[in-house]
Amino acid sequence: MKIGVTGISGKMGQVIGELVWSDPIAELASGFVRQGNNFDGVDLGEFFGQEKTGNKITSDIDVFFKNSAAIIDFSSPELSLQCAKKAAELGKIFVCGTTGFSDTQKAQLAEYAKTCVIIWSSNFSVGVNLLFTLSEKVAAILREDYDVEIVEMHHRNKVDSPSGTALSLGAAVAKGRGANLQDVGKMSRVGTNVPRKKGEIGFSALRGGDVIGDHTVIFAADGERIELTHKASNRNVFASGAIRAAIWGSGQKSGLYLMKDVLGQ
Fold this sequence. Notes:
The chain has two domains: about 1-120 and about 235-260, Rossmann fold; about 125-230, Dihydrodipicolinate Reductase, domain 2 (2-Layer Sandwich). About 35% of the residues lie in helices and about 25% in strands. The protein has helices at about 10-20, 45, 60-65, 75-90, 105-110, 125-140, 165-175, 180-185, 235-250, 260, and strands at about 1-5, 25-30, 55-60, 70-75, 95, 115-120, 145-155, 185, 200-205, 215-220, 225-230, 255-260. The strands form two sheets. Strands 3-2-1-4-5-6-12 form a seven-stranded parallel sheet, sandwiched between helices. Strands 8-9-7-10-11 form a five-stranded mixed sheet.
């Protein structure tokens, strides 16, 4: 399968590109960068320290899509929607790990999925997706008898807070309780009169250093506490999951899928 990677000169893009390069099934066919990027026009082989392939990094989105059967994108909501639109027009597979979409943008992504395969996840790690499932199941058993707090930590440069993964974990807990996260989520507690309400799902976001991504779901009651934790020590876990999703998507009909669909959960 020929795969194109957006933002290939960035940290995540390079990791994805390197894993696609070494994958026995996938082929790195194209890399996309924004106009003015120093790597625009560079041969992909040379970029990864290999022999020239003739396939070049490009800032031309039409050229980028032409050379690829599937696109893997971890960028921004704006660029992701641009890519999703192009994937819908051309019938390409679009694997998206971008977070921070507004409700309107999410609806637009779903609309594009009517004519192509779109696989979206706030986190493509197999372990994190297992954590989503476990959090929902534990919440369904413990209900509101246990207070829930979600703590996440990422590197100092992460711009969205709480992380998309933390919000997905909160949604999983809320679903297990038969609630809606928008109604029970508590994103911050500041002040002197902010008592905890029964059924709240609290969030704490920590930023510092080069932390790839740590997430803990805490179920706390009188006398005991249950903690479900996932820690990512490198970006390979996200990249390998995205590649797995792209290959899986080649056998699917048009639609909007999640990583749990890829894993058969």
